[in-house]
Amino acid sequence: MHEHEHEHEHEHILEDGTKIRHSHTHTQTKAVLNRMARLIGHLESTKRMIEDGRDCSEVLIQLSAVDAAIKAVGRIILKDHIEHCIVDAVKTGDTAEIEKLNKAIEQFIR
Q1: Nearest to 43 by CA among 9, 72, 20, 66
Q2: Could you give the 3-state DSSP secondary structure of residue 39?
Q3: Which of 6, 13, 18, 90 has a CA between 20 and 30 Å from the CA of residue 43?
Q4: Angle, to 10 degrees, between the axis of helix 56-81 and the axis of helix 29-51?
Q5: Mean per-residue pLDDT of the chain
């Protein structure tokens, strides 16, 4: 496994009892972790702004930037999941995985 990939091997049992074992490969894991590190740093610096009594307008602008960065990371994860895991789930008839994605999308787009 390359350092930029993340595999999660598991087994599915289809309605007819067929067992399917496969893994999902996420190609964007390294990019997501890099963005998360920057995001955490940005949030920490925004917290310091509040502690230092910086202007509320400046703090709100930074919080808006953090919020946008969180949404961007979520979109990368969602796209990666659809391109790899969901394509695999459709091929194997894994309706449970597709249902999990639907629930996650409902939460994500609120």
Answers
A1: 66
A2: helix
A3: 6
A4: 170
A5: 84
